[in-house]
Amino acid sequence: MADVQRTIEAFILDSLLLGDEERLPAPTDSLVESGVIDSTGILELIEFLEVEFQISVTEAETVPANLDGVANLVAYVARKTAADSLAG
């Protein structure tokens, strides 16, 4: 899952922080509370997750427990990819 974390952090750094490494929060920090992401950024993040990891993010899954923080995102992607591989 280290690769997933690096991929997500790279997206956040490049797309949301415009390369400002000093603003990259710790994995367990809230992206919303730290000012890294807003509602538009969440939509960009969801699109990135769907394309990069070939998962489908449902409306019911767009909750902080899944999407607010790098650690939460890594765990969410792991659950989704595991569920998809079991289903397929």
From TrEMBL:
<dbReference type="InterPro" id="IPR036736">
    <property type="entry name" value="ACP-like_sf"/>
</dbReference>
<protein>
    <submittedName>
        <fullName>Acyl carrier protein</fullName>
    </submittedName>
</protein>
<feature type="domain" description="Carrier">
    <location>
        <begin position="1"/>
        <end position="81"/>
    </location>
</feature>
<dbReference type="InterPro" id="IPR009081">
    <property type="entry name" value="PP-bd_ACP"/>
</dbReference>
